[in-house]
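Supplementary Methods, section 5.1.

A reviewer requested that the exact input to the structure prediction be made available. We therefore reproduce it here, unchanged from the version used in the analyses.
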Amino acid sequence: MSRMKKYNRQSQKGKEKLAIFKLISDSAKYGLAIVNMKYELVYLNNSFARIFGYSKSFLLGKNIKLLHSQEQFKWAKSMLNKIKKQGYLIDQEIPCIRKDGTELIVSMNADLIKDENGSPYLMAATVIDVTEKKNQARFLKEERKQLLSIFDSIDEVIYVADPHSYEILYVNKFCRKLLGKKTKIEGGICYREFQNFNEPCYFCTNEIILKNPARPYKWEYHNPHVGRDYYIVDRIIKWPDGRDVRFEIAIDVTERKKAEKLLLKYSEDLEEEIKNRTDELMEAQRKLEKSKRLSDIGMLAATIAHELNNPLNVMRIAVYNIKQEKSLSSLDVHLANIEKKILQSSMIIKNLLGYASVRKPCYENVKIVDLVNECIENCLKKYRDYSVKIIRKFDINSGYTILADALYILELTTNILENAFQSFVNKSGKLTISIKCNAKKYLELTFKDNGTGIKDKDLNNIFEPFFTRKASGIGLGLTVCRQIVNLHKGRISIKSQEGFGTKVSISIPAGF
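The structure derived from this sequence is encoded token-by-token as follows.
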């Protein structure tokens, strides 16, 4: 009686273990099945039935031959016999067929189950559907084959190497031909095969591309081993085994380099030729200007003789009268007359020297406001008997400086102020002087008067040497002004209307 109770207890425990096993196996994602030695399914879980498209109840008791085509079963049977012989099977891929007739591949692990006498009576196996994985692997393999085929058709150097071990993993046909390698060089070391070096190349870019694997690195290199110049693009790519590897394409730019050198030589030769021709032109211009000046000086001789003689004659008479006069009041008048004529003579000589002898500007920092104010004060003193209203519109501070020749700018400003004062009828008028610096860093000087103005027909000639409508002077003032502005790389323009006044605009760089 006690033996029967013990048996019942063991039987109950066995059923409980079986129930737990079935519960666990039915929740598993992989297929689980047990077959007897006749290849009949004595147990299967839900995943196994789902893999093949059947219900559990339908497959239970069926021969696994149902899950294979005739040819497939021959292969499967050989695997089952292998299990019987060695007692297990590990990661074996088995071709099968689903209920709907589509083929699939499962990866199987199996073990042989023996009874208490050691005789085999069951085989337990787990299966995983690897069809999609195999298809992807097949697709990737085919794509890789096509890609390498494309690389082999390109007449540029292409290779793949391990950036850590320097092992060559692939070279295209062009690279192999260029290196003169008839045998396969995959598996060799890149710096030995490509450069004949015994250690990694000093110019190797592996570290650069490993630090920035997402970005290609572009560079140029002259390979002395093959005597060619290359434009190279290196980057990290994934190799089929999952490794990060170096991919390189080297484009031969030897002919381009030769063309660049040739073009550079032509460019240098052309620059030299242009320089020589420019020097010749400048020399010809200097000779032409010198010839013109010599011609102008011929005209000057007659003009100076006339213009300087007049004030000198006045001074002689004045001196004579001084000697004759005893009254101090009349003496002051004669002295003032002498002073005025001396200043006229001085201006004539100054303009003549300025035109006849051009020197290079001596640049320095010039406080333009102070300089213009000085010129205004000098002019007011000279024309003390004039009643002129001076309006200053200075949009810069008094400390503002420009890089210029102070003496030249002084002469320029004085000449323009002199012209303005001399244009006032009855020695009275208004003169507006503006100074500002524009956005392009150019200093803009403007002188606007309400004097007699200039006739339209004379405007085109005002900068020509010796052109003047004044009773005195030799017509060099504005010629010298334009010469000074040009030396400072600036511009000068004059707008005028007869009877209404004149506006002189000057623009020069505030610095170089």
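The longest strand covers residues 103-114. These observations are discussed further in the main text.
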